[in-house]
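Now for one protein, fold included:
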Amino acid sequence: MNTLTEKREVFEIERVSETIVVTPLEELGELDSCPMEAGAKKILQLLEDPAVHNVVMDFHRIDYYGSSALAFFIRLWKRVRDHKGRMALCELSEHGREILKTSKLDQFWPVYPSKEEAVLAVERWMPSCR
């Protein structure tokens, strides 16, 4: 198999009501951003659906993400915010929490212990409550 043309999925994407749950399937480092960009494009396209408002990032499969991933999370959050939705994170490792804290992005997204809690929180949140 030629690894240059091998297509791999970096994100598992699940839709729950008005929310897209995005689960990274591998560490999101800096070395190979092309598969991550392809996955990011697919997620951003899903947000074009007017019935989709929220995103939950579920980190139960990974421990690490780099600055390219952080840039994608910010881009995703801005798109969600522009559509009057909400973004939350769940099942972050201690290392993942430290990356957020160091980058000062921990103030933008609530973190929940489970996917179910995160989905419930973003689904219950109403834009008029801002």
The longest strand covers residues 11-16.
